[in-house]
Amino acid sequence: MESKPKASPAPPSAAAPSRHLVLISEHPTQWRRVVRAFLREGLTQGEPCLFLDCLYTRPSVCRFLDQAGLDTRAAQKRGMLTFLAAEEMFNQQAVFSAATCLGALLKVGRGALHRQRGRLRVVADMNWAADTRLNHRRLLLYEEMLNHHILPNHPVDLLCLYDRALFPPAFLERVLALHQGQAAIPGPAGAGGGLPLPLNDGNHRLPRLAAL
Is residue 51 part of a domain? Predict the structure, then answer.
């Protein structure tokens, strides 16, 4: 049985509530737009950002962020943008433990906030789990533990990325239910607001991102 990480004191009630969002994408344009908007907002507000990369690699992320006018090299030098390999974070010593992963995430987050005070933003490329023999129920436990042990006690915005083609539909339905909602997919530059996505279409069916 997974042990529970020790909870920290809750943040002041005046702080904005922490968020746990997900994007289940079907096309690279979707995750690029979401990640660009998510990290741009954080960096603009002076929030340290952590990207756990796997399928979506550090060079590709930096390239499209730089093309959007963000200086990723300068942000990394200032400690405002950090990249870590998702598989090393989640699969430590070739073993996945939800509690160990939460502890590692807390350690990295505290290190980032020690250098830059405020709120933390985390983008987690969860596609590392598609190429393993990991029991997906253990991954769902990790997502659930985030809701119970991280969000109530730490000022953080979490964005989990899943590629729809890599995971079973039933598993992705459970993933959706463990998040506060799907991240909005912004339109092209200058096109106005994004496209907010509900957990389902009202009939317990997953939303079809390809139709957007």
Answer: yes
